[in-house]
Amino acid sequence: MDQPLRIQQLDDRTIGYIAAGEVVERPAQVVKELIENSIDAKSTRISVEIERGGFDLISVSDDGTGIHSDDLALALDRHATSKLANENDLAQISTLGFRGEALASIGMVSQMTISSRTKDSDGNSISMNDGHRGELVICGMAEGTRIEVASLFKNQPARLAFQRRPATEASKIVDIVVDHAMANAHIGFKLTNDARVVLDIPAVEDPNDRLFDLLGGQASSLIPLEKSDDDEQAPGDERWSGWISTPDISRGRGDDIHILINSRPVASQPFLKAIRRGYKTRLMQGRHPVAILNLQLPNDEVDVNVHPTKREVRFKHSWRVLERLERAIAYTLARIPTQPESSGAIAPITGLAPTTIPQAQNTKQRPSWAINASSQLSLDGVKAEPNKDSKSTNRPISSSPITQQTLTGESPIAPALSSAERELHRHAGQDTKRPDHEDPLGAIINDLPEMEPLSQFANSYIMVQSDDELLIVDQHALHERIRYERLRHDESLWTSQPRITPISIDLNARQLAKMSAAQNVLSELGFVFANDSEGWNITAAPNLLDSDSIGPFVHDLLLDLSEDGGVLESVEKVKDELAFMRSCRGAVKANEKLSLPEMRRLLEDMRRIPNPWACVHGRPTAMRIPINALDHHFGRHG
Ligand code: ADP
Ligand code: MG
């Protein structure tokens, strides 16, 4: 048996590195800690400068109270703080910081210089280089504090290896500054990235002004959160305020939901459900609103000491806090009329011709895919000529396709539809793609055997011999599934197409930063952006997007791009939606005569799709009758 390893006390330096690991994971976190210190110091103006995503330099200057010269060295010690005296204070934290760890941690992993001057003393500065503290020196400066952090992680190759690209980090830093600016309208903020001013907004009294300064024109799509008349009477001292988007504005991700608790930006995840509930059924599945929500409540009702970076908090009465939020949102939205969902979806390119949609009263509130699904279910395509011999009035009887013998390698002697009939179909807006006129699919990928069409029944079902099974195939359902798979992987839809009239797009500081961080991905997707005196324009966009959907799609995309190199959900979603809508639209309908080669082609394609048994709406494509079952039915067994 091995002997146990003996326990030893870690030295201070090692402890410092461990602590630094938690508090300064990336440059954006350094910016967050420094801004929070400036806010705690009652600054009215905070200026942030970064170079190369903060890896080369982060510098934060403020006009706050400053640090007493006797305390400057102490500020660099771990667990040294002016914001907390003893354990009792932990229950009543009113400042953003309180752990006394940030400066000590940053100083472990960078070359940091703190310069500070209080109201009635000279300016002093002190440096800390990778954990080694320098001497106090006098320096001339205005009242306030300036902290410079250079060469972050330069001596931590392991940590450096896990960092994002500078442009991605810069974009994250814009997020951080915007979050704090949103929470502190009374403080002016300036952010400079590689000598370019990204944000420069004055201190204001009215939070509405701050909203406009940060979001630009997009602010006008937000409405103030209102309180229901009985809100004041409801138990509890928590108060929600802020702005939410009307249901017609939505995003594919929840990243445009910002939660502030007593002016501290926190992670929005715990609030998303309550927000969705507040929107009731007015948001489409998977869509998220845009919201900036500020919760004010007594400091002793919220515990911020649960997470080293304080992004997470706990409430004494969390259920009540969430309930109140939900009610305020529901109340606010109840006062604006319902509008059809438009933004963010790719509505205009999707549906069947509107005249085929049953004009049910509630059609307007249903998402467009549901409308399409139901109009498709109603089989209201072009009706085939009823067979004159048939007694049934609504079901045409197929004539046997046996008469449609094909010559080897030739087209059928009698085409299923005359060319005149086909023209008719086209002009009826049905846009049916004949199965044998579509691009071939790839290799055989499921275990279906070679199949032989026997006949078409009622111009709607194909009778098929498949080894020792009889299949009755719903021609529309199968064709739809095949078309879905073909369209889903049709990269040509993403070909970039120059716009004759460029589309102007409203991009705020945060979105601009994401755009420049993701230039490569965006141009790969087919987007070209150009800047003129009026603002930003899109001069080329993927083929498949129409002009109305480009703007909302780009806003979604920019949220997606915040993750490094991950799957772009917005792109996948558009691919899905588009394939879904178009597959239905172009598929052969029921009551449509098919030629043998067309049926053969459908059955050939059926072997080349991953899900041959269900159409895109989840209905079956085929019914299987094993020969055994037939034998049994006819009493051939035993
Ligand atoms: P904490 O913010 O948790 O107290 P920090 O390590 O971030 O810990 O900062 C240590 C101390 O340095 C603070 O408590 C504060 O007294 C002082 N300090 C840091 N930054 C500033 C600043 N910009 N202005 C005034 N004082 C500051
Ligand atoms: Mg701090």
Fold and architecture overview:
The chain has 638 residues and is of the alpha+beta class. 30% of the residues lie in helices and 19% in strands. The protein contains 17 helices and 23 strands. Residues 33, 37-38, 41, 62, 64-67, 75, 81-83, 97-104, 145 line the site of adenosine-5'-diphosphate (ADP).
Q: List the bound ligands.
A: adenosine-5'-diphosphate, magnesium ion
Q: Helix fraction?
A: 25-40%
Number of helices: 17
Q: How would you sum up the global shape?
A: elongated
Please outline the helices and strands.
Layout: H1 12-23, H2 27-40, E1 45-51, E2 57-62, H3 102-108, E3 111-117, E4 124-129, E5 132-133, E6 137-138, E7 144-150, H4 157-161, H5 166-183, E8 188-193, E9 196-201, H6 207-215, E10 222-224, E11 239-245, E12 257-261, E13 264-266, H7 269-279, E14 291-296, E15 302-303, E16 314-315, H8 318-334, H9 368-377, H10 419-427, E17 451-457, E18 461-466, E19 469-474, H11 475-488, E20 496-505, H12 509-517, H13 519-525, E21 528-532, E22 535-542, H14 547-560, H15 569-586, H16 596-606, E23 622-626, H17 627-633
Parallel strand pairs: 1-8, 12-14
Antiparallel strand pairs: 1-2, 2-7, 3-4, 3-7, 4-5, 4-6, 8-9, 10-11, 11-14, 12-13, 15-16, 17-18, 18-19, 19-23, 20-22, 21-22
Helix pairs in contact: 1-3, 2-5, 5-12, 7-8, 9-15, 11-15, 11-16
Structure keywords:
23 strands; alpha+beta; five-stranded mixed sheet; elongated; binds adenosine-5'-diphosphate; binds magnesium ion; 638 residues; 30% helix
Short description:
The chain is of the alpha+beta class. It has 17 helices and 23 strands. Strands 1, 2, 3, 4, 5, 6, 7, 8 and 9 form a nine-stranded mixed beta sheet that branches. A five-stranded mixed beta sheet has the order 10-11-14-12-13.
